[in-house]
Design a protein that fits this description.
The protein has strands spanning 2-6, 9-12, 17-24, 32-38, 45-51, 56-58, 66-71, 76-81, 90-98, 101-104, 108-113. By secondary structure, the protein is mainly beta. Strands 2, 4, 5, 6, 9, 10 and 11 form a 7-stranded mixed sheet that branches. It has a 4-stranded antiparallel sheet with strand order 1-3-8-7, with no helix packed on it. Strand 5 and strand 6 form a beta hairpin. The radius of gyration is 13 Å and the shape is globular.
C-alpha cells in the first residue's frame, strides 16, 4: 500500500488548510485511515482517525477545529484544518490500517505563522 499526502503549506494563524492522502496498491475495503503529526523536536502524535464506515476520533488539541473525512470510492482521506495555531506547525503524516498491518505516507509540512 502506498500513501501520497498533499496540501501542506504556509498559512497565517487563524487560517485554514486542507490535507489529502490517497491510497493505492493492495487496497482492502475494511480499513481505518488517519493523520498524525510531528513537530520539530517532538514525538509523532495522533491527530485524527476515521473508519471505513465514517466513525471519527480526534485528539483533544484539534477537536472542534479539524475535520477528518474520506472518499471510499477514491481511497482518499482528508483533513480540513481551520483556526490554525502556531502550535499546529508540524509534518503531517497519513496512516492506514488494514488486515492487521499499517502503512505511513511520506508526510507533508504545515507551517502556521503567528
Amino acid at each position: 500500500v502506498q500513501l501520497q499526502a498533499f496540501g501542506g503549506g504556509l498559512v497565517q494563524a487563524g487560517g485554514s488548510l486542507r490535507l489529502s492522502c490517497a491510497a493505492s496498491g493492495s487496497i482492502l475495503r475494511i480499513n481505518v485511515m488517519g493523520w498524525y503529526r510531528q513537530a520539530p523536536g517532538k514525538q509523532r502524535e495522533f491527530v485524527a482517525t476515521i473508519t471505513f464506515g465514517g466513525t471519527t476520533n480526534y485528539a483533544a488539541s484539534v477537536r472542534g477545529r479539524f475535520t477528518i473525512s474520506r472518499d471510499n470510492a477514491e481511497n482518499t482521506v482528508y483533513l480540513q484544518m481551520n483556526s490554525l495555531k502556531p502550535e499546529d506547525t508540524a509534518v503531517y503524516y497519513c496512516r492506514r490500517w488494514q488486515n492487521q498491518a499499517h502503512f505511513w505516507g511520506q508526510g507533508t509540512l504545515v507551517t502556521v505563522s503567528s
